[in-house]
């Protein structure tokens, strides 16, 4: 277990997320609980964001359900290494379905960010990109510097088939940038954004 | 032999359920096959039942109705994820074939089989138990209406008495 490595990664999460969400168009975004939910909110809260406050391990499957329901929309699941590890089997499930419009990006600081920055399995031996590849996702990459970030953004919008990008980011705390936490509101505003008020209203 | 699985399939079609997640179970095998073969149903095999809860949430966010087919032994895997349904007011039709209830051979099935109704109710799920073949269709049909209109998850527990005890050749 390398507890120090995460502190040396050059990429900073807020800058990365700002780039990934630039010119987002009608991208639908699910953010895993904790820092990723704060990151997308720091860039700018949006009705097409579904920031999780729980459901740890569920982010990828939520993204898959959205992607299958809305095949003409691009869907991004942005999550952390801890949340991804809790739902790692979902990568096999995604690989079976081969959704053309689903991109998964893991911001990997090798930490459980909300509980005291304890190291996760990626600080030891776990390689999430290799895991995704082994579970059947073909388009995988691990980034450690600036150079690949634009390519990730491009994949989010254009790659035909599930993609899985791990971006190693520095383990550090940021100011909270809290999204709304009322789940029913988040759900309703997302559905209204996707299908219009009339269709979304029961 | 009652073909109550066909009544469940009819319910899914009439309720316009588009996404069905499942961890295979013998009691559900014909229904699962029917869903797989149906071009209008997106059937997704899961590595664990909790994936199906999150899948159903995603389906709802995207404007589609989702259902989850599983055995009682998988229900416990869903509990944490069901807190999202409660927090966000999202539906899920859960069709559960029961073990550990009626002449069960495998003792490891008994704990979950016996605990499920109360566990699910504690988790905010509305629970309906069926043990007569001719009640399967009507119960599942009302469960589908109830979940998609109330946005509370609803489980239909299909008694082991309906499914038949697995004999393991004993």
Q: What is the count of distinct domains of chain A?
A: 1
Q: Determine the most extensive contact between two protein chains.
A: A-B, 39 and 34 residues
Distance linking N and C termini of chain B: 21 Å
State the order of secondary-structure elements of chain A, H for helix, E for strand.
HEHEHEHHEEEHEHEH
Give the second-level CATH assignment, the architecture of chain A: 3-Layer(aba) Sandwich
Radius of gyration of chain B: 15 Å
Instruction: List unreliable stretches of 5+ residues of chain B.
Output: none
Total number of β-strand segments of chain A?
8
- Tally of contiguous helical segments of chain A: 8
* Arrangement of strands in the largest sheet of chain B: 2-1-3-4-6-5
* Chain-averaged pLDDT of chain B: 96
Calculate Rg of chain A over CA atoms: 16 Å
Q: What is the class of chain B in the CATH system?
A: Alpha Beta
Average predicted confidence as pLDDT of chain A: 97
SSE class of chain A: alpha/beta
Annotation, overall tally of beta strands of chain B: 6
Question: Could you please say which CATH topology of chain A applies here?
Answer: Rossmann fold
Portion in beta strands of chain A: 15-25%
- Looking at this structure, what is the CATH superfamily of chain B? Thiamin diphosphate (ThDP)-binding fold, Pyr/PP domains
Fill in the keyword field for this structure.
heterodimer, A: 202 residues, alpha/beta, Rossmann fold, two-stranded antiparallel sheet, globular, B: 170 residues, 6-stranded parallel beta sheet, 6 strands, 48% helix
